[in-house]
Amino acid sequence: MKACRLLYMIIFFLKECLLVAAQESNPSELSIEQLAEHEQFISDDDGDIQQYQYLLKNPLDLNRASAEELHVFSFLHEIHIMYLLKHRSIHGDLISIYELQAIPYWDETIIRLILPYVYIGNASLRRKEWKERWTHGDQIILAGTTMSCSNDPMKQKEMLRYPGGPERVFVRYKYQYKNLLQYGVLAEKDPGEAWFKGVQQKGFDFYSAHMVLRNLGKFKTIVLGDYHINLGQGLLIWQSMAFRKSSEPMLIKRQGAILRPYHSSGEFAFHRGVGITTGYRSWSLTGFASSRNYSSIIYSDTIDNRNYFSSINASGLHRTISEQQAKGALRCITSGGNLSFDRSNFHVGLNLIGHDFGLVWQQKQDKLYNLFAFGGNQYTNISLDASYTYKNLHLFSEWVMHRFRSSAMLAGMMISLDQRVDMSLLVRDMSRGYQSHFGNAFTESTFPSNEKGAYAGLSIRPRHGWRVDLYADLYQFPWLRYRVDAPSHGRDYMCQVSYSVRRRAQLYLRIRDEEKLYNDPMSGLNLKDGLVAARKISWRAQMEWQYNRSWMIRNRVEVLALRQGHGMRQSGFICFLDAFYKPMMKPYSLNVRFQYFEADSYDSRVYAYENDVLYQFSVPAFYGNGYRAYLNGKIVLSKSIRFWFRLSRTWTGNIKETEVKGQIQWLLAGKT
Prior knowledge:
Radius of gyration: 25 Å
Number of strands: 34
Largest sheet: 24 strands, antiparallel, barrel
Oligomer: single chain
Strand content: over 45%
Helix content: 10-25%
């Protein structure tokens, strides 16, 4: 990749961007994109997307919305929520949506983001009858299939090993009345899994069901079937989607309901059983119990006369004989609860959770970095979390004990220094012996263990249309890690400058600089001197342009440079053009992308968020040299039936990979 060619492309791109205008980017897309870069795996949890889609047709009444209901909006900070609730308590119900401009720290960006999902209600017009929960809700059936094919001989040979076809199939039924009642079922099979034959005589590989009822007198929430558990700041457990470092520096706090129904196709991050939340005045008590089977390879140790497992398979794939044998082989019983005290600006909660794997013990590989890993068949974690808001300052923290021996701590602060300046700070300290199978806190590592760090973020809006977002994260790992045979450290910096023009345009420029230590691939010594730094710098420019009411254009150019020890250098590059067409008063809409990418290896891969059919998204990694194109479409066939389709193809050298998706939604009852 020649530097002059990249320079000309970037100059041309920036020139075009300055001549046009674009719509604001979806902050969730950018956060999911960076989450994929960090995690390299994102679960199939589409619960947040379903919730946003539901609120588009059934907006939330801002005059009756609780703090818990407002937490669904990831772009709202605790300070925004507190000032809204305070405004309602002092001045009474909002009269008009325009009154939001009078609430401190509710700027134009926040109001524009929340407007599609809320309304100002009139108390005299609200329905309160119990039976309406069961008769006036939305009933939806959603079914879809995905077919993939490739001319790669290795992939073709691999598919022949599987007992099932290459298609993915799912069916979902869901009933929902506001946030008061929801129930549904889901069935799904993955590519390669058998279907109504062989070991899958009962049809689908995965089944899920759920029901949730809210506001039943003293019972705030009752959830049955499959559900998420979210406690504190994720040091114990957090199963709903949660972001780490992103272009939104203020998104550092975990916020959401403790119990949340699960209705997605992912087969790992949920519990199965019952959960109940009850309350009296400022106190609330939550209890939950779950018993479910996970996929894991179980092996026997004849010396200890015990059964062991090393890890839990989170992929949800059950195609080969070994994957079928591992399916449901590990039973885990989980129980625990939460006791909380809440006031308008203060919260404190005591959290408890225990896991029991029965007669099966966990045993990691005999590696030095696993010296402090969990070993056993049961453990209990307990934590204390708290938050406090004073004017424009919000503080939060969680402290947790593992087996009453190892500990972990996280504390953060969000403050609005001015109407145009917000700042966030977060420190964390997780001992090397702390373990949590379902922890998902704001950390650099996948799991909250063996890490210390400090994060600082700043969001500045110097004048109308301009925004500058920055963060810096410094961290260290006191003990060894996979591929890092000594204590190590790292850093991560990001700066993004955005410019919006009259709601119709946005251009943003971003630079990110990250450095970590790894084992030296050129050295066979597992010593500290054998660690080398891997520094990755990426430059991105993106533009969105709302050409008219029907057309929107998006363009991106990104360059990545990777420098590893001993002068090893790699690079990555991606550019794409999106076009969105949604004609007024027409029963169809289209979205097309054309993309070029090149990367020297998997280490220098680049990512790009991709739009998909309803409730779905993808963030594939690209490496090698090739092209990609896809077409998404939506057709309204009738008042109650909608159809989505997706065609995509990737060319990498002589390899061609094609994917076809189809999805149909049937609205049995409710709003269209």
